[in-house]
């Protein structure tokens, strides 16, 4: 699995491009800005974008979504006749997605056309990326629809857990006790060598966070 990180302004979100080396199918975890580098990487790898996987619905994780996203990010490639890039999220964060344009102007960002979600996922769902499996882990607490995506021993955690920290819980739908439960019961039960790729900041691991995360 090829993993490329794109740090996007204005809040330095981590967006991750995952490419299955055998099938050349790709998934983008979160989409914070329109970034031509992603399209260039897809072309360089000869890959096609199958999914945009949203970890949650906050504006800074969805601001780069455009109606023609599949065409923009795969300008010379095709998923196949009648196929297109599919947008994925948990249904409990749909209201946050719909409110995106309330927040974008505050950060000098252009409004977007609120997209339709193709796939609503729930805890335990599996998405296929070539021969790889992406497991959905529902981790409410930062938002009610927050999810992590686990693939090949790597956890893409959005704003649920950061290096030695956790996502803020003081926004609508946030709940500190809930995020602690999500982390202890769903993330800390994973093998300690699972690498964590958070929505902001540096990569970490399950083992490191069990030892050093001050909120746990």
Kindly list the characteristics that best describe this protein.
single chain, 216 residues, alpha/beta, Metallo-beta-lactamase, Chain A, six-stranded mixed β-sheet
Question: What features would you describe in this structure?
Answer:
The protein has helices spanning 36-45, 59-62, 69-73, 94-98, 100-103, 176-187, 206-212; strands spanning 2-8, 13-19, 25-29, 48-53, 86-90, 119-121, 126-129, 132-138, 147-151, 154-158, 161-162, 165-166, 195-198, 204-205. Mean pLDDT is 92; it is low at 76-82. It has seven helices and 14 strands. It has one domain: Ribonuclease Z/Hydroxyacylglutathione hydrolase-like (Metallo-beta-lactamase, Chain A, 4-Layer Sandwich), CATH 3.60.15. With 216 residues, it is α/β, with parallel strands linked by helices.
Question: In summary, what is this structure?
Answer:
The chain has 216 residues and is α/β, with parallel strands linked by helices.
Query: How many helices?
Result: 7
Write down the domain tally.
Answer: 1
CATH topology: Metallo-beta-lactamase, Chain A
**CA-CA gap between termini:** 31 Å
What's the total count of β strands? 14
Largest sheet: spatial strand order: 1-2-3-4-5-6
Query: Could you say which structural class the secondary elements and strand pairing correspond to?
Result: alpha/beta
Shape-level CATH architecture: 4-Layer Sandwich
Helix content: 10-25%
H/E series: EEEHEHHEHHEEEEEEEHEEH
> Which whole number gives the mean pLDDT?
92
In the CATH hierarchy, what is the class? Answer: Alpha Beta
| Largest sheet composition | 6 strands, mixed
Q: For the record, what is the CATH homologous superfamily label?
A: Ribonuclease Z/Hydroxyacylglutathione hydrolase-like
User: Which blocks of ≥5 consecutive residues have pLDDT under 50?
Assistant: 76-82
| CA radius of gyration | 16 Å
